[in-house]
Each structure stands twice: as structure tokens, then as C-alpha cells.
Amino acid sequence: MKKKTLIIGGYRGIGKSIYETIKKRGDIVFCICRSKIKKKNFISADITKKDGINLIKNFFKKEKIDNLIFAQRYRGNDSDEEYNVVLKATNNLIKISKFKNNNSSIVILGSIASTTIIGDQNDTYHFTRGALETLTKYYAYKLGKQNIRVNCIQPTKIFKPENKKFFSKKNNRDRKLIEKITPIGRMGNSIDIANLAEFLTSEKSSYITGVIIPVDGGLRLVGQEQIAKMFKK
């Protein structure tokens, strides 16, 4: 029997790559996004509004899912909306979701901003990503006996559909700097994140829960002194 996976924010960015990867695996994939998409199994709903929550509740009256993936992203400068979209909505949707009882999985897309500072992101972006990791651990504990696993993916700066054109430019300075200090020697891409999401929603990860997994090519291992030495050369 095909697994059923629900992705919050599966129309753009990393979420789109996750959607395509999970669908290719053979799952029946449902997506919830704000945009009005005329596509099978896409549900247009604002996850911060009562009407949107009611639409999702109606969805769960008809469907039970195997996997739930949070890949939504707020694009704007309103701190309250950032909190509502990223943190509050994630918590609310976990509470109302209906799962099957055969090794279900929740995957939350976080950010390296929970452990280091990203200069082009504001305060709310940072503390909500830190809170997502605490939320991951809380629900991993609370839902474990229901055979529901909860894990968080922590990406660093990566190639994704929205920035690919910028980073792909010949001699792009930002890309070259990242490549120079990253042990793997390249920037990550959205497929790297999607592949991990696929693993975390598969039987192969059935004993993994409550963990925060960085996807950074080893960059977190490189100290300030070592980076300074690289640029001295």
C-alpha cells in the first residue's frame, strides 16, 4: 500500500524539491500552501488563519497520513507573522494531524540559524528556528509511544530554485567563499535536503527520533582560526 505524505509548503524552494523526491518514491503526496494551485492533491490554505485550519481539519476527517513534513517559509519583515507561520502553525498542525499507526514520521525543516548567526536574517528568524528544535524534541518524546517519530533538518546556505541563478553565475564571490571553507568543497542544494527528508520518512530510519541533523558539508567543524588561515594563504 502506498504511503501518504503531507507537505506544508511544498510548492516553492526546498519544499518543492522534497515534494518531487517523495512523489518519485511512490507516495501519495498532499501539499498545503497559500498559493491557489490547480493541481491534484494541492490544498490552498493559510495555516495561520482559522479558515485555513478548518480546511486542514476537514482534510483529516477523510485522510490519515504516514508522514508530515514542514517546509513552509515566511517571506516578509513582520515578526509576528514569522512566528505565526514558522512556529505557532507547526505546533497547531501537529496537534490536529491524524496519523496511521505504522511507523509514522514528522520532519521539520529548521535552519543553521539556531546555532550560528546569519547576517541577512532578523531576530525572529533566529529564535523561531531555535524554538523549532525544542519543539522537535518535545514531540519526539510525547509521540514516541504512538510510533510517531519527529526529527529536524538543519540546512546551511544552499542552492535552491529561487537563488540558483545568482549562485550559478561564473566567479560568484559568495559561492566561491562558501566552497573554500566547506570541507566537502561545494555548496549544498535542495536535493541534499530532500534526500534526507526521504530517509527520515522511510523504514530505514525507524529508530531515529528527536534529533537535529545539520546538512552543511562539514562547515560547522571549521573553526574561526582555520578559516582565517585559509584566507591568509
Explain what this protein looks like in three dimensions.
- This protein has 233 residues and is an alpha/beta fold.
- It has helices at 13-25, 50-62, 79-96, 123-143, 164-167, 173-181, 190-200, 224-232; strands at residues 4-8, 28-33, 42-44, 67-70, 104-109, 148-155, 158-159, 188-189, 212-215.
- It has one domain (4-164, 189-218): Rossmann fold, CATH 3.40.50.
- Helices cover 42% and strands 17% of the residues.
- The chain has a seven-stranded parallel β-sheet, with helices on both faces. Strands 7-8 form a two-stranded parallel sheet.
- Helix 1 (13-25) crosses helix 7 and helix 3 runs parallel beside helix 4.
- The longest helix is centred in the middle third of the chain and has 21 residues, at 123-143.
- It is globular.
- 34% of the residues are buried.
- The model has no long low-confidence stretch (mean pLDDT 93).
